[in-house]
Amino acid sequence: MAILALKVDNLSIRSGKKDLVSMLSFSIEKQSIYGIFAPTGSGKTDILKAIIGLKKVKNGEINLLDKKMPDFSILRFVGYIPKQRKIFPLLTIEENLYFFGRNYGMTKGQIEWKSEELLSITNLKNLKKTKIKDLSFDQQVMASFICSLVHCPSFLILDDPLSGMSLPLSQFIIQQIYYQKEQGNTVLFTSSNINDANICDKILILSRGKELIEEKPSAILRLTNSKTLDEAILRLQ
Amino acid sequence: MRWYKIFGITKRILISFFKDPKLLIIAILAPLILILVFSVTYRPEIGDIKIAIVDLEKSHSKQLNIVDSIEKLLKENIKKVNIVKYDSIENAKDAFKKNKIDSIIVFPEKLDETVFIKLSGIPIEKPAEVILYNDETDKLKSSIISEGLEKSIIILSQSFGIEPAFVVSKGLFFNRDISNQDFWNSAIISFSIFMLSLLFSLSLISSEKVDGLLQSIISSSMTSFEILTGYFIGYLFINFIQIVILLSVYIFFFKGILSISIFLVFIFMFLLSICGNLLGILLSSTYTSTVRSFQIAVIIMLISLLISGIFWPTSSLPFVGKILSYLFPTSFAIEAVRGIITKENSFLQVFPNFLILCFFCFLYYFLALLFIRKTVD
């Protein structure tokens, strides 16, 4: 039996008088890439926030890395990259890495060691003493990305990471997602573009806050007798 | 000029306004709150005037009972006056420090004798000197008391058919002259630090919230306590610098006090800055909309500006105004700072205010702790 990194049971989230998500259940195996796909504004961000305990849930249970949420101590092992995440513009890359590393309780030596590795893979080593505001947009996104990885999270949560990104940036992020899986970590990401599902081991497609299907992309194509996932969604609806 | 474009904007604003129930509530409540606060703080007439009389005449041979006559005339010439007799200047000054009285009139020894000599037609060497210790920080009250006393002396002298045989000279309560300027400055430096700390923490944390920086911190494994305390201490450093600037300007530009009590003033300003600081974080956490939190902050500042004793002492406010003033930490800080500056109050005398301000600090800290993670919900 596969070891689960996340288990969500009957999750319902309400915003004002509107039910954003109702009775949603899914689970994510360790060392896998999992994608949640739904149109913009259908509660994907709220699901992610609920998972890490930042959003109150109407009902349901969430178990993240064997801990019942909300439990902020488990966030030590979680990397959360919100949509359009920014880091402190007046600090240098090095200072930002140090700040986020310390937030997760790392020692100076551990931060330096991990920063070296992250700066090398992003080619930002020469710019580590440059303020974020003086970097290009792509460099800022990369710097922001590595700040979320500095504490070596075993569960990475990315909110719509590929939306509005240039081709080189998208490739960089996809590469990092694969790299995280290779390292034995779990990745959960959301997207409104079903074409991003190609990189996932398993996907969950939502429609109006409810589960449409949860399966491997190839299985969805087979089950719906479709050639593309777009076509599969149309058939499922 | 195309009117349909102009009306398009107008229509959009009105639709947004009527579709936002929170904005509607603020728009309706704000004028109501303001008019109510103005009505309970507006002071059309002066309240009770409390005068202490100290008679230094120790002998019992008072031929003319001048002091009793003046007391009677003061009651006739000053509205709502309340006269209390003290046996020494020290006791009277102590009562002044405790806000029990507004001024002291000291009648010298041999006053009756001097007036009697003048009445007998014998030239007097120099007139007797009545000393008036007036609280010059309250211009309105002090002028009413001065005028009332002068008038009483003239009436009494006229009743004897002589020129006044005694003069009124001004006495100083403490080592230095306290003026109406000190009444204002003590309140202004206190309110300024409250306003600055509130706006600074609110604007800084709101900008981090808008940029998603706060979310990055909150989604880390840090506890609410660590996050709040980290922000709070950072802002306190900024407030510390602001207090030093405010006090320096007060001392060197406005010629304020430069003694050990300045440290006491600093403590109260620091406590008030903690309150402002935490209130800013609390407002920013409570309201998901930055605009809304600023609207509430402006309302809080406006009410505390009217009700905290900046323009007139809280003790002179009507009953409802007094109750309202207890809800704001500024009232207690201004009262304490004013007491230290204008009445040279000691730490023990302002200790209750110190405790109340500490309570406000803990209350705001506790509430901010509860709401800090709500910021990103």
What is the secondary structure topology, with strand pairs?
The complex is a heterodimer of chains A (237) and B (377).
Chain A: E1 4-15, E2 18-29, E3 33-37, H1 44-51, E4 59-64, E5 67-68, E6 78-81, H2 93-103, H3 108-122, H4 137-147, E7 155-158, H5 167-182, E8 186-191, E9 202-207, E10 210-215, H6 217-224, H7 229-236
Parallel strand pairs in A: 3-8, 3-9, 6-7, 7-8
Antiparallel strand pairs in A: 1-2, 1-4, 4-5, 9-10
Helix pairs in contact in A: 2-3, 6-7
Chain B: H1 3-19, H2 21-41, E1 49-55, H3 66-77, E2 81-86, H4 89-97, E3 103-107, H5 111-119, E4 128-134, H6 139-160, E5 166-171, H7 180-210, H8 213-218, H9 224-253, H10 261-286, H11 290-307, H12 319-325, H13 329-343, H14 351-371
Parallel strand pairs in B: 1-2, 1-3, 4-5
Antiparallel strand pairs in B: 3-4
Helix pairs in contact in B: 2-11, 3-6, 7-9, 7-10, 7-11, 7-13, 9-10, 10-11, 10-13, 10-14, 13-14
Number of strands of chain A: 10
Largest sheet of chain B: 5 strands, mixed
| SS element count, helices of chain A | 7
Rounded to an integer, what's the Rg of chain A over CA atoms? 18 Å
Residue windows where pLDDT falls under 50 for at least 5 positions of chain B: none
Total count of helical runs of at least 4 residues of chain B: 14
Rg of chain B, rounded, reads 28 Å
Tell me the overall shape of chain B. elongated
Fourth CATH level, the homologous superfamily of chain A:
P-loop containing nucleotide triphosphate hydrolases
The ordered string of helix (H) and strand (E) elements of chain B is HHEHEHEHEHEHHHHHHHH
**Sequence of strands across the biggest β-sheet of chain A:** 6-7-8-3-9-10
Beta-strand residue percentage of chain B: 5-15%
Q: Give the structural class of chain B.
A: alpha/beta
Instruction: Give the fraction of residues assigned to helices of chain A.
Output: 25-40%
- Strands ordered across the widest β-sheet of chain B: 2-1-3-4-5
Helix-and-strand structural type of chain A: alpha/beta
